Amino acid sequence: MSSTHLGIPKGTRDFGPNIMAKRQYIFQSIQGVFKKFGFQPLETPSMENLSVLTGKYGDEGDQLLYKIVDSGDFLKKANTADFEAGYKKLLPAIATKGLRYDLTVPFARYVAMHRHEISFPFKRYQMQPVWRADRPQKGRYREFYQCDADVVGTSSLLCEAEIISMINQVFSVLGLVDYSINLNHRQLLVGISEAIGAPGMQTELAVSLDKLNKIGPEKVLQELESKGFKSHQLTALEPLLQWQGTWEQLRDPLSEFLKDSASGQKGIDDIEVILQHVKAMGHTDPKVIVNVSLARGLAYYTGAIFEVVDNKVSIGSICGGGRYDDLTGVFGLPDVSGVGISFGVDRIYDVMEQLNLFPDEDLSFSKVLLVALDDQSEHHALGVLSNLRKNGIASEIYPDRSKLKKPLSYANKKRVPVVVLIGQDEISSGKLTVKHMAEGTQEQLTEQELVGLLTKENG
Amino acid sequence: MSSTHLGIPKGTRDFGPNIMAKRQYIFQSIQGVFKKFGFQPLETPSMENLSVLTGKYGDEGDQLLYKIVDSGDFLKKANTADFEAGYKKLLPAIATKGLRYDLTVPFARYVAMHRHEISFPFKRYQMQPVWRADRPQKGRYREFYQCDADVVGTSSLLCEAEIISMINQVFSVLGLVDYSINLNHRQLLVGISEAIGAPGMQTELAVSLDKLNKIGPEKVLQELESKGFKSHQLTALEPLLQWQGTWEQLRDPLSEFLKDSASGQKGIDDIEVILQHVKAMGHTDPKVIVNVSLARGLAYYTGAIFEVVDNKVSIGSICGGGRYDDLTGVFGLPDVSGVGISFGVDRIYDVMEQLNLFPDEDLSFSKVLLVALDDQSEHHALGVLSNLRKNGIASEIYPDRSKLKKPLSYANKKRVPVVVLIGQDEISSGKLTVKHMAEGTQEQLTEQELVGLLTKENG
Q: What value does the mean pLDDT take over residues B208-222?
């Protein structure tokens, strides 16, 4: 049939074995840290009712939701007038389910639904794909994984400290060393609005500040002006756009700047406590930069906010999160405070690829390929194969009889480090012919010696 | 807001922490065996173009595909006549993508698309959810995981033997002991059609035989009669419906029954070779039952077919697969023979739950919960916490200050086996108060003794 069948939808990807090996390495590393910090796994359905998803991500987000056509006669609730009125009018009649847009809203829905079974504080992690009908572009996909960890049901600042500790451990396990954890606090932004004489304008302020890295300080100030900020307010704000540094550097000037704002003082106190906790956890260099222009787009944050960037690879945020006070309120469960973090696997992958951080030994598949040289030797080879696997060694036998070139090329392409030839000579001598692919060397080993060699390499 | 927001779509499920722990145990066990056999991971997008999916699963399957509404103005290609003509006519104009129905078709699409990069034989495994707009009922879901392993690009019967070996290893790792691997061969069904005087009728025969366990032999024969099988043909067939047994029991009567059928002989020879290979792999009891009435529904099988049932829990097939000769032909790549197996995680879960096979130690999360008894002790506790984690011990600190009842109840519900109390007394004596939750005992240990105790329990 025609090759038109062979594409995949725009913005989606196949992950072949070599990419998968690297992705699994990232997922397992993150999951290992989540577990060590006492987070428990959760999975929610790919589809949610549109009533759960709609209205949670702003108008733009609603546009980007993937909607699923109702099963069977999806037009049974629609009439010609709906159709004539256009797609926005018809949609609710033909689609009641959508694919999840993130893991946060399904998590909030889960917590509200299962509030009576959950023992709070609830620490959950979730690693699942999400879907957004975004315009595909470099580094932006329509299906991608999120790796989230959240604690809900406590307002303790220990949680923020644990998240900073967790970020450090994840990137340490992955071998990233030169990154910064940008830290800010929504109450500092409230305080700054007050201090510059624009109380209550923190949301407008945050939305514009969020673009600082993309469009630069001048355009941020222009945008704020167009939102109604007065020129003396912008003059007061301008120096703060450069305020990034260690807490030791920023604490005093911030305290001075925000001395008349209770909210600002709350932000300062929280950051102080969080960083003391981090220190008590033994982190001598937690790579935290306090950055008062860090805003993060999402409306639901109310306390500390985090964003991690790699200092060598310019790719934007590779991890981000923050404290929220009312995530589940919209689902009928008010006043549940929590704090969460999300690791951006696709970007972390790109950073690690650029910095060559994937360890070779974790990316190989089988440790050994057996090649039977004739039919009579095949059954002997199968015994060796079972013995290797019994010893926990990932092993294969080349299934077809062919010239040696083919299995050797197969081993090369699949990065199998050892090829073992088994023929009549090997069976009668009791010594297998062992080829080391990388070195191009060959030796004769007994079956037991082979197992010893490969378990040593494994360990 | 209203509680109507709180549901999830029919036929889908949330997997909370306790269920997830068990599911992860199953997935990891299967994945471990797949890797040991040299299978490599693959992931394909959740969405495929409907041109890839449609027409691969029969008319009924096409009905069960979830279709995704095209982004933006999905009506721009539709006109009122399409709408008036009904949903079947309108659908292609408004939806061009669907959710995958299984992992086999996306795999075939992947192989055809990437034929020039893949080194054959290609051994891949894939563990991802699939979606079917089926009527929800007990044990049948609209979103569920499949765990597939396939080898393509070789017709060697070693692959069938490896699959039987792999099935045995997976169930051995999971602790299942009393199961049967039903084995049949499509060419035996061809031969049986010929031997009963109904050559070419093997598909009709297979479709009816597939229902044998559900509707019994009488109704199978009635159904075959209605399909045009003659009474002398049914009389010849009837005794075979009972033919199940070891290969030693069935080989001779089958050879006799099929002595005039070349296809039948091919089936017999294949099974003979497969089981010899399995024996050579050291399986003294591979639990294989040859069952000539095993049919399996899917049209694409051409050789050996497998289906595993648990002998204690009646839940149907928990694993199945077979040899196919032309899976990728429809995507423009003919003559690629392969053999695959699929593990049914949901049913395996149910069987293991009923037989109480989940090992307790793999289902707990944190090994220890620290409780600081006052603010002054908190920073000391954070140091202990970091030290425990540094030693690879999954550990938590209770984040809120409260009466001891709350953290103890939290530990109980989350099955944390050890709770450690840290207050002024503990800090000054250098001995932590360690509570063993299951035993209800308490002892005083130094930090080092605590680490020793918990790493010992871990190992």
A: 90
Rounded CA-CA distance B197/B203 in Å is 14
What is the nearest CA distance from B49 to chain A, expressed in angstroms? 6
B8 touching A, CB under 8 A? yes
Burial B50-59 (b: 16+ CB within 10 A, else e): bbbbbebbee
Q: Say if strands A143-152 and B418-422 run parallel, antiparallel, or are unpaired.
A: unpaired
At residue B1, the pLDDT reads: 40
Q: What percent of chain B has pLDDT over 70?
A: 98
Smallest CA–CA distance, residue A266 to chain B, in Å, is 19
Buried b / exposed e over A412-441, threshold 16 CB at 10 Å, is: eebbbbbbbbbbeebeeeebbbbbeeeeee
Question: What's the pLDDT score for residue B2?
Answer: 43
Strands, E assignment, A246-394: 288-291, 301-310, 317-324, 338-343, 368-372
Mean pLDDT of A371-378: 94
CA dist list (Å): B326 to A166, B202, B240, B404: 49, 18, 29, 65
Establish if B413 touches chain A: CB-CB under 8 angstroms: yes
Collapse the DSSP code of A375 into the 3-class scheme (helix H, G, I; strand E, B; otherwise coil) and give the result: helix
The CA distance from B190 to B198, in Å, is 9
The confidence score (pLDDT) of residue A459 equals 44
First to last CA, chain B: 49
Give A455's contacts in chain B (Cβ within 8 Å): none
The residues, ordered by sequence, that sit 6+ positions from B429 with a Cβ below 8 Å of its Cβ are: B444
Q: What are phi and psi of A245, to 5 degrees?
A: 170, -175
Both tokens of residue B229? 């099988």
Q: Distance between CA atoms of A106 and A108, rounded to whole angstroms? A: 5
- Cα torsion through A410, A414, A417, A419, rounded to 10: -30
What are the backbone dihedrals phi and psi of residue A11, each rounded to the nearest 5 degrees, phi first? 85, 0
Task: Cis check for the bond before B217: say yes or no (omega within 30 of 0).
Answer: no
B5/A276 touch (CB, cutoff 8 Å), yes or no = no
Tell me if chain A has a CB within 8 Å of the CB of B154: yes
Q: Measured between CB atoms, does B110 come within 8 Å of chain A?
A: yes
Determine the residue type at A136.
P
| b/e code A17-40 from CB counts within 10 Å (16+ = b) | bbbbbbbbbbbebbbebbebbbbb
CA distance B161 to B301: 17
d(CA A180, CA B44): 33
ipTM of the complex: 0.93
Cα gap B337→B151, rounded to integer Å: 9
Q: Is A328 helix (H, G, I), strand (E, B) or coil?
A: coil
> Which residues are CB-contacts of B235 (< 8 A; sequence separation ≥ 6)?
none
Residues 6 or more apart whose Cβ sits within 8 Å of residue A220? A208, A209, A211, A212, A241
Query: Which pairing describes strands B368-372 and B395-397: parallel, antiparallel, or unpaired?
Result: parallel
Cβ–Cβ gap A113/B14 under 8 Å: yes
Q: How far is CA B231 from the centre of its chain?
A: 40
The residue among B237, B177, B171, B179 whose CA lies nearest residue B204 is B237
The percentage of chain A sitting over the pLDDT mark of 70, rounded to a whole number, equals: 98
With beta carbons under 8 A apart, name residues in chain B contacting A366.
Answer: 38
C-alpha span between A314 and A418 (Å, rounded): 39
Give the bridge partners for B125, in sequence order.
B41, B149
Using N-to-C axis directions, what is the helix angle for B186-195 and B202-209, rounded to 10°?
Answer: 110
Residue A4 pLDDT level (bands cut at 50, 70, 90): very low
Residue ranges of the alpha helices (H) in B100-246?
A: 104-113, 158-174, 186-195, 202-209, 212-226, 231-237
Residues 6+ apart with CB under 8 A from B452: none
Confidence of residue A41 (pLDDT cuts 50, 70, 90): very high
Q: How many CB atoms lie within 10 A of CB A311?
A: 11
